[in-house]
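Working notes for the structural subgroup meeting. M.R. asked for a predicted model of this chain before we commit to crystallization trials. I am recording the input and output together here so anyone reviewing the notebook later can reproduce the run.

Input as submitted:
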Amino acid sequence: MTATLTGRPVISATGLFTPAESITNAELVASFNAFADRHNAAHAEAIAAGEAEALPYSSVEFIEKASGIKARHVMSKAAILDPETMCPRLPERANDELSVMAEIGVAAARQALERAGRKPEDVDAVLCAASNMQRAYPAMAIEIQQALGIDGFGFDMNVACSSATFGIQTAADYVRAGNARSVLVVSPEITSGHLNWRDRDSHFIFGDVATAVLVEDAAIAPAEHWEILGTRLKTVFSNNIRNNFGFLNRAHPESTGSADKLFVQEGRKVFKEVVPMVAQMILDEATRLGLDPAATRRLWLHQANAGMNRLIAHKVLGHEASEDESPTVLDTYGNTSSAGSIIAFHKHNDDLAAGDTGLICSFGAGYSAGTVFVRKVA
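Returned structure, recorded in token form:
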């Protein structure tokens, strides 16, 4: 790549890895209810004496009303559905083997490179932007970089469900500053590992996936690409979504008293606080960029909750959004943390015409939120 660089960042291509296995709501409910029966039978005396509460059943209707999710892809289906475990079981790999998180990240990255007509040697950097890292170090990004054969640098970043959009802005800033021509933002999300599958209020939320976004200088981008018009990030501290697992606590997530070492949230508070924050952030950024938010051709929103997306889209567009205006992948993928908005973009952008504008937007724990306004070129 010898073109004169412009310092204008674009999205050249995206990639997606989807696990082969999927769990339907009906399968998940059957497993959870069998676990509830076992738990309630084992604690029958305490429950009868009022010393403990019986676990209530889950249901397909409850899940779909609460979230809009109908199924989710996972890396380890059998162990999750086994009432004795209800937790993914992924065999530990030796240090000289490619880790599972790097493996799925590489798969998504290779697809993005192929779609852009790029070779690994064309890429300058790899950012692994995800909500949960398989290990502290060496960085997952460096392992992905090594597996792809990229001569450059890489590092990990974690901003929970906004990791990918934060990664896109970081990559765009490298391009703007002339520090890189081509950057891969890879988001391998094995969120099934941090979910408490035994908690009725959250056992249905997450799924596994990996995405990749290739951010490049406009001068070297393929003819069809997405100009990055502007990016904006925001964080506000909140305990309403939290995961306390880390190297300072060694308790196994299934042990007594360690439920907070897995994903926990105050869902109603999150809904009430995040929806107006994100909607206003989008409107303010559109104003800053001189864009009419109501004219945004498509919203690729974070896939966490159908109700949240519906309200945010309505506030931005000024009317109830159609599936065409705000496409959903939540129903088949579940919440895939930072990957959700990227999956929606990956699967639902080919039909847009040159000059159409769209918005990639994420929001989640932190609180964190990120917006990426784009315009299709060619």
